[in-house]
């Protein structure tokens, strides 16, 4: 067992921990809290509520794997939802047009930030921090007051539910209710799969890892470091655009306070999913489970009757804290084991 | 060992300056009039360099002579200020702006530091960056890597994470990568410093094979033996200028050294004589260890050193010699055993404890453990003494300057000023700064772990001289070096290590190359 | 000729120094304001509701409101230098320390008639609490070797919740006027108190840097941890210490913040101040990846940010939209100070010089 642990790559090791923890949490909740957690719909609701976060966290994981960070994603989400809302309601736009706007905003942020970070060599934290400020400020400039979108096409799309057969449950009135997921979930899962494939089975994907592992070495190995870094930020920006639209689709309104702190949630999910901020280590599947773990624990806390607002913050933080400490201990122990092994 | 070639060096570069490329039909690479400067420093001043097909060409020079700069210009890490580079089969000068360009043109490189990605697998490290986009076939890649590893006899598997391989294996993987690329020019920049003898042999065999296939190989090394073992020609650089280009048989060892140093031969023999001063020791043990053991994986060891004695730890790389001295200094976590000073037990848990007890330690890895790169030469020199003096008693500027200037002069450290960041100095001068740092604390016992690694011949001799001088003034010194002849010259007693265990001790008449070798190999009595 | 050489050397030295960035930024802002409206720099004497004379004007606002940022920038600079990372939890920690002060002052009643404890006691307790939270971050970073941004993400997430929990989610209000002195005016002194507090902090840190090795050790650890350890330093402790010092700064800021409004709003107090503090460090030309630092530059950087904020307010930018403008200015500044861009400018300058020089020579002849 120990030998196996030593042989595992860091990425796989952390991924395993995350998945185990998620299932432990969920099964624990099923056993001890029963009821709600026994219904499949509870799980689907977690997905529905977090589809946008999954997408944002995917983008975040990607830049984190390359050793960077993008804290503008929450701001971009707010900006996207506000712009789309204004476009749909005040300018009578079409749904397709609004999707284009979302993608456009995301891409624009990705390209500008990516250029500044990779070609002008400015610290990603500063650039994307400014990006976040800019996006939040622009959201208020576009429209100050929050409002719900009434565009019919959009509402129809928002209300679209994909029914999952056989997993429905009987509600309090004794009526059978189908289990369902929203469109956003499909988009999110699709993105997870695509990104997973890109990272695992394409040369570009492996370059992201190489870059995060050691940028100087990556350069010497003949990788176009600047371009690769640029691409990672563009993808992250694009995903922020898509995530923003999925978020918009879920809440159906525009507001400057939307997705506040989403960037930190995304970072937290990525970390819980086994991505390391130092770069070079991480996995998209882990990120998915990171988001799910985080929201599962929130569900557990709220259904345990700890309704006060501060509990969410405190549980999230303790979860993050636990993961960080476990990760650092596991990695340290593994390093030690390797060292000893080498000496034997 | 080598036949002395009496014939003096033919000034081959006469033809170079004449500009008549008579013997250059088979030239695979030509660099002409290369200039490169960093800020105000001219690292390369009009260097010409030729490489023929199927030759192994040594690029020699002291640290700071411009070897690394020349290579980095060639591989596109630096962009040259002036000059042209020609490659075989391309009519016009090639422009190399990035390592990618170099790779595409058939120039592959193994750098001194390992430039691989620790988080990727061995196979990925061999293949990444060689073609840009598309899907990745793991199976094919691992199979390919497996074959390469097998042919080169590298003890690892393609799927292993690189970080979990030993440094030597990592270096071999880097070589495997460079070799596997279909290259016209192969650059090996000090590839042997972390390899043991067998691995070096493997590498040499490989180099000879490649040579037969017509690859031009540029070989940079500090080991003169290796140069004479495999190389065909030598280009010597000094102070950023071309000193000359020679056939290997035309340039005996001593002359090569004198070319590198720019000194006459007499000076060198003088140095040899000078370092042969008496090796005296007296009195009881100054420091003594009993069953000392640290968490770095060494077996418990006993060791003692007397006042004014120079001794050394010897053994192959990884035999635990560094770990022993690190344990004495408290650099690794000590888990058992005792250290005695003048017979009284002392507690050394952290480096500061050792420093307070009069021990200084010059670490093996200068870059990682020695220099504090962004700080100035002055700060790097005073730091150890400052830390001993205490947090609340900083030196005044005048004091610090005085200390720094004193040792800059004493050791002849070449630096623009005491304010210069130490990272911009050459390796040898950095080493001298660290030496100055410890001398400033006036230690009773100084541990020098590989003080001569990766620095130029001149400084090497300087350091050996200094060691003997300090010892004659009463300082106890432990001197560790990979080069046995250096240790034979300086040490009066050698502790031999194998497999992280002390296996013998040699002194007096036993101090011969053969005896050391046989003890290391296990032929002890 | 000699003096000219000296002069140019001096200029090169200054240009190489980090402090040039905030100075240039400050100059640009000053010039901009001078052109747009010189009255920006006017300082008026007025009377507050209590009838005390006070100084007012945009400059006073900058100095006054910049105080918190300056104090934080001091701690943040040390943390950045020692750990190569930033503490993003300072805003949340300020909420906690402010909440602690109020809790101690109010006791069990959230609207007390009289203070339940002396202010100094409340402040000292909040110092201890803030330093403990700093120590918590420090332990995660120094002992568990977690990257600072990630480690402080924990407190960032939990901090405001903890702050609310300390006061049972109530919003205590202090009616005692003397509590307002720290964030407002001491009767008879026309200059806002935070300016003095910031001044004291600056003097203290200057003395500490001068008479101890804090700066030297911090930089050494930030540049090369392993090497510092072998020279007898204790990198773990130095990193830990930097977080504790930041904790102290946080407590001081917490006092000013709650004193300003004599109350607290858990979700709004010191919001986004961590970002401003980090920006101040970066604007000071300090590398965010640790190592060498320049405290003066960081402090100047903090004032530059406040200057910018106040300038924007003056031009009737809404507080919510403020961040967009700030972002643009910040990006401009960072882009201009980026090494790549600077190199490019240097090359351009060289070419221009080379273009002009022959002409001059010809003229001389």
Could you walk me through the main structural features you see in this protein, from its secondary elements to its overall organization?
Chain A has 344 residues and is mainly α. Chain A contains 14 helices and four strands. In chain A, strands 1-4 form a two-stranded antiparallel sheet. Chain A is globular. In chain A, 53% of the residues are buried. In chain B, helix 14 crosses helix 15 (397-411), helix 14 (377-389) packs parallel to helix 16 (427-440) and helix 15 crosses helix 16 (427-440). The two termini of chain B are 28 Å apart.
Radius of gyration of chain B: 24 Å
CATH fold name of the largest domain in chain B: Rossmann fold
- Provide the spatial order of strands within the biggest beta sheet of chain A: 1-4
Number of helices of chain A: 14
Estimate the global geometry of chain B from the Cα principal axes.
globular
Given helix and strand content, the structural type of chain A is mainly alpha
- Number of DSSP E strands of chain A: 4
Amount of beta strand of chain B:
15-25%
Percent strand of chain A equals: 5-15%
Q: Helix proportion of residues of chain A, in percent?
A: over 70%
Largest interface: A-C, 48 and 46 residues
What is the terminal separation of chain A in angstroms? 18 Å
């Amino acid at each position: 067992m120990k030998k196996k642990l030593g042989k595992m790559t860091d990425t796989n090791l952390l991924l395993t921990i995350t998945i185990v923890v998620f299932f432990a949490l969920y099964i624990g909740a099923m056993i001890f809290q029963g009821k709600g957690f026994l219904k499949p719909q509870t799980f689907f609701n977690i997905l529905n509520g977090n589809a946008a976060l999954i997408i944002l966290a995917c983008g975040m994981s990607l830049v984190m794997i390359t050793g960077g960070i993008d804290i503008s994603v929450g701001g971009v989400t707010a900006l996207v939802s506000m712009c789309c809302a204004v476009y749909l309601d005040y300018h009578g736009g079409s749904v397709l047009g609004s999707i284009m706007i979302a993608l456009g905003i995301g891409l624009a942020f990705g390209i500008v930030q990516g250029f500044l970070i990779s070609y002008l060599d400015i610290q990603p934290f500063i650039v994307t921090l400014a990006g976040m400020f800019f996006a939040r400020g622009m959201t208020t400039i576009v429209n100050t007051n929050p409002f719900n979108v009434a565009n019919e096409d959009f509402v129809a799309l928002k209300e679209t539910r994909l029914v999952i057969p056989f997993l429905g449950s009987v509600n309090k009135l004794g009526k059978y209710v189908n289990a369902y997921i929203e469109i956003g979930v499909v988009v999110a899962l699709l993105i997870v799969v695509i990104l997973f494939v890109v990272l695992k089975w394409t040369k570009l994907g492996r370059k992201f890892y190489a870059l995060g592992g050691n940028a100087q070495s990556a350069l010497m190995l003949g990788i176009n470091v600047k371009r690769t870094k640029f691409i990672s930020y563009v993808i992250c920006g694009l995903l922020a655009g898509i995530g923003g639209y999925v978020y918009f689709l879920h809440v159906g309104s525009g507001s400057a306070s939307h997705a506040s702190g989403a960037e930190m949630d995304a970072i937290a999910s990525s970390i819980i999913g086994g991505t390391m901020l130092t770069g070079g280590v991480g996995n998209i599947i882990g990120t998915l489970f990171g988001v799910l773990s985080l929201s599962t624990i929130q569900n557990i806390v709220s259904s345990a009757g700890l309704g006060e607002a501060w509990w969410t913050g405190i549980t999230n933080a303790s979860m993050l804290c636990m993961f960080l400490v476990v990760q650092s201990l596991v990695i340290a122990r593994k390093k030690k084991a390797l060292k000893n092994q080498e000496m034997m | 060992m080598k036949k002395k070639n009496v014939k003096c060096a033919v000034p081959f570069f006469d033809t170079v300056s004449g500009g008549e490329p008579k013997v250059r039909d088979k030239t695979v690479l030509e660099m002409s009039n290369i200039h490169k400067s960093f800020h105000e420093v001219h690292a390369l001043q009009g260097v010409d360099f030729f490489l023929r097909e199927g030759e192994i060409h040594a690029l020699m020079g002291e640290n700071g002579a411009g070897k690394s700069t020349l290579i980095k210009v060639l591989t596109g890490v630096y962009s040259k200020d002036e000059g042209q580079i020609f490659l075989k089969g391309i009519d016009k000068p090639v422009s190399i702006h990035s390592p990618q360009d170099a790779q595409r043109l058939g120039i592959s490189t193994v750098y001194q530091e390992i430039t691989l990605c620790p988080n990727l697998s061995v196979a990925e490290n061999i293949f990444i960056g060689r073609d840009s986009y598309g899907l990745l076939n793991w199976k094919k890649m691992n199979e390919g890597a497996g074959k390469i590893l097998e042919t080169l006899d590298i003890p690892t598997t393609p799927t292993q994470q690189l970080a979990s391989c030993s440094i030597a294996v990592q270096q071999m993987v880097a070589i495997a990568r460079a070799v596997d690329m279909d290259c016209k020019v192969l650059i090996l920049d000090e590839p042997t410093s972390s390899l043991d003898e067998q691995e070096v042999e493997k590498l040499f065999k490989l180099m000879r094979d490649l040579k037969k296939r017509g690859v031009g190989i540029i070989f940079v090394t500090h080991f003169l033996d290796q140069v004479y073992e495999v190389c065909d020609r030598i280009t010597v650089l000094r102070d950023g200028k071309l000193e000359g280009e020679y056939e290997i048989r035309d340039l005996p060892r001593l002359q090569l050294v004198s070319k590198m140093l720019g000194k006459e031969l007499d000076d060198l023999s003088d140095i040899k004589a000078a370092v042969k001063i008496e090796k005296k020791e007296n009195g009881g043990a100054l420091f003594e260890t009993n069953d000392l053991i640290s968490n770095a994986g060494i077996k418990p060891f006993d060791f003692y050193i007397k006042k004014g004695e120079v001794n050394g730890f010897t053994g192959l790389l990884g035999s635990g010699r560094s770990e022993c001295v690190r344990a004495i200094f408290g650099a690794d976590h000590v888990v058992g055993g005792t250290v005695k000073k003048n017979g009284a037990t002392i507690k050394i848990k952290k480096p500061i404890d050792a420093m307070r007890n009069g021990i200084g330690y010059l670490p093996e890895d200068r870059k990682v453990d020695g220099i504090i790169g962004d700080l100035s030469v002055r700060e790097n020199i005073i730091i150890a003494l400052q830390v001993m003096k205490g947090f609340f008693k900083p030196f005044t500027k005048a004091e610090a300057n005085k200390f720094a200037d004193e040792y800059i002069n004493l050791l002849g450290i070449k630096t623009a000023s005491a304010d210069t960041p130490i990272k911009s100095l050459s390796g040898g001068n950095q080493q001298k700064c660290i030496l100055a740092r410890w001398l400033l604390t006036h230690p009773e016992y100084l541990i020098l772990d590989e003080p001569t690694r990766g620095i130029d011949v001149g400084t090497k001799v300087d350091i050996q001289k200094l060691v003997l001088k300090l010892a004659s003034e009463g300082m106890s010194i432990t001197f560790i070096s990979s080069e046995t002849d250096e240790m034979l010259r300086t040490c009066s007693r050698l502790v031999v290590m194998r497999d992280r265990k002390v296996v013998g001790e040699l002194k007096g008449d036993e101090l011969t190359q053969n005896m050391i070798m046989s003890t290391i190999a296990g032929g002890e009595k | 000729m000699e003096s000219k050489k000296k002069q140019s050397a001096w200029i090169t030295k200054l240009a190489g120094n980090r402090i040039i960035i905030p100075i240039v930024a400050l100059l640009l802002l000053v010039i901009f304001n001078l052109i747009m409206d010189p009255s920006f720099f006017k300082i008026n004497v007025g009377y507050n509701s209590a009838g005390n004379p006070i100084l007012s004007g945009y400059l006073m606002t900058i100095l006054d409101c910049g105080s918190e940022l300056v104090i934080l920038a001091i701690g943040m600079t040390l943390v950045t230098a020692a750990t190569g990372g930033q503490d993003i939890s300072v805003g949340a920690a300020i909420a906690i320390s402010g909440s602690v002060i109020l809790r101690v002052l109010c006791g069990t009643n959230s609207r007390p008639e009289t203070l339940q404890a002396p202010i100094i006691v409340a402040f000292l307790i909040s110092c201890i609490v803030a330093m403990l939270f700093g120590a918590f971050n420090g332990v995660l970073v120094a002992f568990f070797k977690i990257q600072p941004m990630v480690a402080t993400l924990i407190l960032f997430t939990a901090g405001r919740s903890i702050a609310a929990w300390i006061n049972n989610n109530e919003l205590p209000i202090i009616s005692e006027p003397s509590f307002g002195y720290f964030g407002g005016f001491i009767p008879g002194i026309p200059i806002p108190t935070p300016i003095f507090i910031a001044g004291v902090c600056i003097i203290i840190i200057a003395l500490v840097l001068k008479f101890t090795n804090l700066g030297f050790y911090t930089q050494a650890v930030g540049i090369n941890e392993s090497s510092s350890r072998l020279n007898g330093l204790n990198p773990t402790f130095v990193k830990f210490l930097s977080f504790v010092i930041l904790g102290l700064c946080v407590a001081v800021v917490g006092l000013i913040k709650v004193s300003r409004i004599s109350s607290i709003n858990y979700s709004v107090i010191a919001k986004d101040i961590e970002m401003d503090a980090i920006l101040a460090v970066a604007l000071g030309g300090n590398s965010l990846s640790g190592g060498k630092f320049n405290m003066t530059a960081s402090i100047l950087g903090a004032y530059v940010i406040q200057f910018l904020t106040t300038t924007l307010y003056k031009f009737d930018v809404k507080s919510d939209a403020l961040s967009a403008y700030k972002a643009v200015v910040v990006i401009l500044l960072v882009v201009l100070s980026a090494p790549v861009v600077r190199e490019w400018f240097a090359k351009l300058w060289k070419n221009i010089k080379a273009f002009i020089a022959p002409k001059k020579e010809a003229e001389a002849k």
